[in-house]
Amino acid sequence: MRISDLAAEAGVTVKAVRYYESQGLLKPRREANGYRSYEPDDVVVVREVKALLSLGLTAEQTYPFIECLRAGNARADVCPASLTAYRSRIEEVDRRIAELTDLRVRLTDLLTDAESWRTNDGRPADCG
């Protein structure tokens, strides 16, 4: 299968397929004319990578999932390393939620303080 066929079948761009290949996620055969040749299983790999990237995983973090597929598993996320990658991403999300929650509290406090601020003579600020 040619790169354009793989991209169309998997729902990605040719550029995305080339990127996945540059990251070592795909290893196409090279034909005598130098063209890349992909296997039908590569469609599953590309779809999996696309789905994982949409969850915020990096290309590097998708390796355990791809290895799980290449080991013959029907699902990419049933291997211990894949489960560890999920846990790691959840921890990252939890950290980000905590950071954003803290930021929201600080901004809300600043807004409340600014809305109630009065000049020395008790009048609201005149920003005219």
TrEMBL record:
Gene3D superfamilies: 1.10.1660.10. SUPFAM superfamilies: Putative DNA-binding domain. The keyword Ligase does not apply. It comes from Kribbella speibonae. Residues 1-57 form the HTH merR-type domain. InterPro entries: DNA-bd_dom_put_sf, MerR-type_HTH_dom, MerR_fam. Residues 83-110 form a coiled coil. This is MerR family transcriptional regulator. GO terms for molecular function: DNA binding; DNA-binding transcription factor activity. Keywords: Coiled coil, DNA-binding, Transcription, Transcription regulation. SMART domains: HTH_MERR.
